[in-house]
Hints:
Mean pLDDT: 75
Largest sheet: 3 strands, mixed
Order of helices and strands: HHHHHHEHEEEEEEEE
Number of helices: 7
Shape: elongated
Strand order of the largest sheet: 1-9-8
Structural class: alpha+beta
Helix content: 25-40%
Amino acid sequence: xxxxxxxxxxxxxxxxxxxxxxxxxxxxxxxxxxxxxxxxxxxxxxxxxxxxxxxxxxxxxxxxxxxxxxxxxxxxxxxxxxxxxxxxxxxxxxxxxxxxxxxxxxxxxxxxxxxxxxxxxxxxxxxxxxxxxxxxxxxxxxxxxxxxxxxxxxxxxxxxxxxxxxxxxxxxxxxxxxxxxxxxxxxxxxxxxxxxxxxxxxxxxxxxxxxxxxxxxxxxxxxxxxxxxxxxxxxxxxxxxxxxxxxxxxxxxxxxxxx
Length: 259
C-alpha cells in the first residue's frame, strides 16, 4: 500500500512548508492520544514532506497517480473535542474508552483510505504508460505479398541525453534513499520516493525531472515477411518505452494493416 503523506497530515498537496510544519505540530500535540503506529506514520509523513528533496521525489510519483485522494485527512478538531469532553466530564477519564473512541475515529479514516488506495492502484495502471508500445502500420498489398521493409515513425520515452538516463543534474551522484534506507521498499511495497530503486538523484535533472527518460521521436525499419496478412502483429525488441531510471526497454508491437 502506497501511503498518502498529505492525507496522513491532513493537508492539501500544494501546502506550503509552514503549513506542513503547523499540521505536524498540531498532530504531535496529541501524540499520546493515538497509537504508536499512527504516530510513526505522522513522523514518517513529516520527514518526507518537510525535506524539499524528498518531497520533490514524492510529489513526482504523487502527480502521476492523479488526484485520487480527496479525503480531508485526520480532523484534529475532532480529537480536541473528544479530549475536551473527557477533560471536563465529571466522571473519571477512562483511557481505554478514550482510545476506543479515537480508534473508531481513525478507523473510519483507515477504512476510507483503503478504498481510495484500491481505486488509486487500478487508476494508476490505466493512467501510466506501459513499457510496451502498440501501433498500427499501413502497408500496400504488394509489400504484404512480396515482403520487404517499411519505415515507422513513432514517439516513445527514451533516454534523457542531458543526464544519460541517470536522472541526476550535472553529474551529481545518486544518494541512498533515507525513507526506505536503501532497501527500495516500505512496508512490503515499492518505496514511493525512490520508486523501489533504493537510491535517487541528489539533484534531479532539470530536463527529465529525475526520471532519466523523456519523450523522443524514433524511426525504425520494420521488416515485413512475405505473405503478410492483416492479422499479423510484428514485434520489435526494445522498441518500447525506457524504464524509469533504468536502461531496460519494453517492446514495440506493430499491427500490420494491408491497404
